[in-house]
Design a protein that fits this description.
The structure is a homodimer of 525-residue chains. The first copy, chain A, is of the alpha/beta class and 525 residues long. Chain A folds into three domains: 101 residues, Aspartate Aminotransferase, domain 1 (Alpha-Beta Complex); 178 residues, 3-Layer(aba) Sandwich (Aspartate Aminotransferase, domain 2), CATH 3.40.640.10; 124 residues, Aspartate Aminotransferase, domain 1 (Alpha-Beta Complex), CATH 3.90.1150. Helix content of chain A is 40%, strand content 12%. Chain A contains 15 helices and twelve strands. In chain A, helix 1 runs antiparallel to helix 2, helix 5 packs antiparallel against helix 13 and helix 7 packs across helix 9. Chain A is globular and about 70 Å long. At the A-B interface, helix 1, helix 2, helix 3, helix 4 and helix 5 of A face helix 1, helix 2, helix 3, helix 4 and helix 5 of B. Chains A, B: Belongs to the group II decarboxylase family.
Chain lengths: 525, 525
């Protein structure tokens, strides 16, 4: 036992069995002692087992309300080598023992995005099955380009995409899709495909051969639409930003007007992005009205349901996406509302074959036609990537684990949490809702009004002071590490908190805690 | 013990300790019993421990030469539900026991890319430390957009990029970069940045405001250059493909001529891609000669060192990339020659600030300027993605584990393997080299000449028959599962095998095995 080289873990029972495995090794071990070294098997098992103990400890701790959400340090503090945690890259190997310490420290100084009181991002939670799926994925360590090296994962992608398309409401013989590295890239695909659909010559001749295109998206939509327009050579000023109503939903009449104005200016409209679940308000654009407009002007209709797509899994909430079946393409991120580990985002496309036509280059070192199997399963040439990470297995395993019904219940629970928060905010005078309506998604936006501002009349002075409240509370929150929530201004509205629920671990007590904590941290402001 | 719900694993010692953990549970467990369920901790530990046993078994088996590289089944066979392995997505939860069976099956029907006899892709091997890094990454489950949610990982990215830039040979105060989802996206960044550097108005006004651009790359370069040109709206026909010599290196004089011809046609050259390590031949373009040309025409010089970048880690081989320090941008994939698990690709950019200027949109819900820390560490707006997977931790941990010197030795070993194969091929009359020179990288390209073709004179009949040899042997290889190697035609050359070495597990005995196996499988052709 004295010779055991690794630092201790939390489980005496596990510790013992690991000792049995690696008690043959000497005091200082390095990675060269691991597989593929001959006789490296026991050392490999021992090392990975130690790591797993650390990871299990982290997973359990993330679920404990008494633990911190984060242990904040400024960049300069971490760079200075806090308590011996050095980021530097050495010339010579470090010991396995040191690596395990580094792993512990990395988790210690990070953020527990799975903590029930982490409300900072649309992606939160730490699904155990999803984590298991990722561990397997990284152990399988393969690429999504050909069936030859990813037989199971490519079939899993096919099964998932088909299921997701049927949930969107497309016919069985319709559609195609891909899993992409995040929703922004999925949205980029939708614009790329729309452009190719109307102007296939763009692939060879470029944008120079096309008229000046115009695309449309709401002022509340995600910035990825503009970003993609910049990348694709369309230009951000050719993205027309359409007005929304008080709730953050696009105004169909405003879209009509915008299209007409663009045409008058000589631009050629080709694409409309509708958002199903906006980033800040969680608003759902009126999809049927937008579909009518797209139909009458022969425009590509994309639905960015990166955030709202999860609601399709719930019988109670899926009607909020009515009309999505009329879209030409849909972005849907299971890594958000469905709690799948990062990243997991799908672009679904109604027109079969378009992805392949648009992106195919037929590199002969990968996509040989004389292979001994059905090469239609070599789907890599549909992608704008070459190598593509396996993002499907974790979702598939979670689907097996929960069933469609389980995902539905999970979504329902998150929306119940949002309603609970909404109810509490209405009851408590220290808070003000950003808009009065009941939340449609799990986003709830609100201001905390500190005592010193409560008697101030509305106006620029109050606004100026209120604008500083959320950042100051957030700063204190980070220092304390008790809870984490995001804030931002929007349009003419000064900084407000946005709470989002996508973590099934969150309970009503966590919501009460959040509100009490904000009050505590902001009492003197 | 009778009540233990999981299927058996390979290690009795481990089994015992897991039983101690979960013996309280009932016979059929489902994911709802795991965390965040109250009292879910023991079940979570037990389940993940069972999974880890499966993964450890796979890792060990991947390193055993007696095990198969793959257990091939056609798509229709896997879809039919081989031995109960069902890909279908249920409405109701499956048991944890069934999930573990699914995990086992997924690995069983997949490909062991870490097997010492897997030569099929530029990425191979299964680095234990790298896998450990990925397990931690997926457990931490966070995003690379802001310091707020990824303090440690963003600092690790900074440290790695700085180190890689210094290895490329740039001054300390020069440069920027990002880790991207694969080399194709890294290459896309280089073109995006070059375009913005010369024409910053493209971001807002699009390609319509620009002259007709031309870019240059060699006929042996990766297809990602053309693919990116299609995506970015430049158009594939504005990518001028430049002639290479017999070895696959770009001919500088041909590049000069191509630039002149493009200018005569009214195109505006702006970008040259030089390849350091081509995909098939492993050739290194003459970087200094290209840099001279780029300098004289004021063109952006990009070096696609996705495959060859690893050689920079070796004192013995880094001179093959002489001149790389003169590039404006470099793609370097540690997931290839350095053996880091998929994906891990960096785009390095010499001009500081350009990434940010080119891609920034300043979304206020993420990139608030009134945060309580130095927001220059919120680097997410440099990216064309929004959420970005953490691809840096595994590389950082491997660097700690091996040191720079360890990576150097690993690269040297792979190139020694290539030389050994080259020597063997010269000695054995059943094989013919595609070109005579000693390999510069770890790629070795060759034909197997079956007995029936050995007496045939060179010409179209022999070529036609030889073209079918590699695919047929590959088909048999896949059925047998003993070894895996890629093939392709190139230019006028009919199908040939390309062997590549990036797996440190591969030994000379594996190379002998490969050649003997090809002879066995092709003897009757």
């Amino acid at each position: 036992m004295k010779n055991f080289p690794f630092s201790g873990g939390p489980e005496p029972a596990l510790r013992l069995c690991v000792c049995v495995c690696v008690c043959v090794c000497v005091c200082v071990s390095v990675c060269a002692d691991l597989l593929p070294a001959s006789c490296g098997e026991e050392m490999t098992r021992g090392f990975l087992q130690e790591l797993v103990d650390i990871l299990l400890g982290f997973i359990c701790k993330s679920n404990q309300r008494s633990s911190k959400v984060l242990d904040f340090h400024h960049p300069h503090q971490l760079k200075e080598g806090l308590e011996g945690f050095s980021l530097d890259l050495p010339d010579q190997p470090e010991t396995l023992e040191q690596l395990l310490v580094d792993c512990r420290d990395t988790l210690k100084y990070g953020v527990s995005t799975g903590h029930p009181r982490f409300f900072n991002q649309l992606s939160s939670g730490l699904d155990v099955i999803g984590v298991a799926g990722e561990w397997l994925t990284s152990t399988a360590n393969t690429n999504m380009f050909t069936y030859e090296v990813s037989p199971v994962f490519l079939l899993i992608e096919e099964v998932l995409l088909k299921k997701m398309r049927s949930i969107v409401g497309w016919a069985d013989d319709e559609g195609d899709g891909l899993f992409c590295p995040g929703g922004t890239i999925s949205n980029l695909y939708s614009i790329l495909l729309a452009r190719y659909h109307f102007y296939p010559e763009v692939k060879t001749r470029g944008m120079g051969a096309l008229p000046r295109l115009a695309m449309f998206t709401s002022e509340h939509s995600h910035y990825s639409v503009k970003k993609s327009a910049a990348v694709l050579g369309i230009g951000t000023e050719n993205v027309v930003v359409v007005k929304c109503d008080e709730r953050g939903k696009i105004i169909p009449a405003a879209l009509e007007t915008s299209i007409a104005t663009a045409k008058e200016k000589g631009l050629v409209p080709f694409y409309v992005n509708a958002t199903a679940g906006t980033t800040v308000y969680g608003a759902f654009d009126p999809l049927n009205a937008i579909a009518d407009i797209c139909h009458s002007h022969t425009l590509w209709m994309h639905v960015d349901a990166a955030w709202g797509g999860g609601l399709l899994m719930s019988d109670r909430h899926r009607m909020k996406l009515q009309g999505i079946e009329r879209a030409c393409s849909v972005t849907w991120n299971p890594h958000k509302m469905m709690g799948v580990p990062l990243q997991c985002s799908a672009i679904l496309v109604k027109k079969r074959g378009l992805l392949q036509e648009c992106n195919k280059l037929g590199a002969q070192y990968l996509f040989q036609m004389d292979k001994p199997y059905d090469v239609s399963y070599d789907t890599g040439d549909k992608s704008i990537q070459c190598g593509r990470h396996v993002d499907v297995f974790k979702l598939w395993l979670m689907w097996k684990a929960k069933g469609s019904d389980g995902f539905g219940s999970q979504v329902n629970k998150c929306l119940e949490n949002a309603e609970y928060l909404y109810d509490q905010l209405q009851k408590r005078t220290e808070f003000e809702l950003v808009f009065k309506n009941k939340p449609e998604h799990s986003n709830v936006c609100f201001w905390y009004i500190p005592p010193s501002l409560r008697s101030l009349p509305p106006g620029s002075d109050r606004d100026r002071r209120l604008h500083q409240v959320a950042p100051r509370i957030k700063g204190r929150m980070m220092e304390k590490g008790s809870v984490l929530i995001g804030y931002q201004p929007l349009g003419t509205k000064v900084n407000f908190f946005r709470c989002v629920f996508s973590n099934p671990a969150t309970q009503q007590e966590d919501i009460d805690f959040l509100l009490d904590e904000i009050c505590k941290l902001g009492a003197d402001l």
